[in-house]
Amino acid sequence: MPYTFIDNIENNYYQIIFKKHIHMAYISGKKLISIYSLNDESINSDIEKFHFDSFGKYGDIIIINGDTPIDKYIKQAEVLIKSNKKSIFIINKINSCSKENIIKLRDFVQKLKSDDNIKFILPFTDDTVRRGMINILLSDEFFNICIPHPDYSYEIQSNKNQPENDDSLIKNILRSEEDIEKLKTYHSSLYLAISYINKNYSDDITLEDVAKASYVSPSHLSYLFRKKLNTKFKKVLFILRLNKAKEIIMNNPRMTLTNIAIQVGFYDLSHFGKVYRKYEGVNVSEIRNNIIYNLL
Q1: How far apart are CA 232 and CA 221, in angstroms?
Q2: What pLDDT was estimated at residue 90?
Q3: Which GO terms describe its molecular function (predicted)?
């Protein structure tokens, strides 16, 4: 379900969120605003309506068609910079852009100064990520916005104000591949972060590694984990490791706990046991023994 501006009270909450994020992006020093949505076409009309409602406060809108050469838009931006005029360039259908055009745009955006009044808006979808277009563009120059899916956003918002030691929300999110997939409709950077951890849980990964894969800084990723999901990077890593460990125990209960610990990324059995007891409330050996007993 793509985000759209809907003029009824029930959906005003999402309209307000979108307007707030766009405003924050425009007044930030960032030169390129990336917006993740299930449907990039709806975003263009939403942005245009936002500008219409703002009476040109943030500058004129210029649409960049993905299938046309980028050079003329770069020249247009250069003229506007010299005239000190505010303008917003929307990249329409980035999936139609050539790699050459994307690289030219990236190089131009990186040269912009913080006091320039030019900003570029990049609506992108899952297909954009799959094609690797985002990898070319996203950097510290970007302000990322995610358009949430109303139903899933409400589910998380309703549960994120739980006590700090209550792990029920993050455990539900990490319960299965399908549940992790839902994150892409809530927040793109968190989805990319948790997907990366889920694929690399057995390695000695760091917050910096995950932040790089999520196109945000380590400090901002820590903020997102804390503010959006009431959790921390290490907690996500440990819960995913424990999920895999429980799966191995269920399928092969006679494997030694030491082998299981090393296989899922813990450096020894003692560390594995402490983490398991902390997050599951029982000893891992008891769980394994109960499974073996039931098989007899």
Answers
A1: 9
A2: 84
A3: DNA-binding transcription factor activity; sequence-specific DNA binding
Name the architecture of domain 244-295. Orthogonal Bundle (1.10)
DSSP-assigned states of every residue in 274-294: HHHHHHHSS-HHHHHHHHHHH
Q: What is the largest CA-CA distance in the chain?
A: 82
The closest alpha carbon to 194, from 164, 214, 215, belongs to 214
> Looking at residue 6, what is its pLDDT?
38
Q: Which two tokens stand for residue 121?
A: 């808006």
Give the residue ranges of the chain where pLDDT is below 50: 1-10, 150-154, 158
Superfamily for domain range 9-146: P-loop containing nucleotide triphosphate hydrolases (3.40.50.300)
pLDDT score of 248: 92
Instruction: Report pLDDT digits (tens) over 105-138.
Output: 888 888 888 777 888 888 877 777 777 676 676 6
pTM: 0.53
Q: Who's near 49: CB < 8 A, 6+ residues apart?
A: 5
* Neighbouring C-beta atoms of residue 100, cutoff 10 Å: 10
For the chain, the structural domain boundaries read: 9-146, 164-231, 244-295
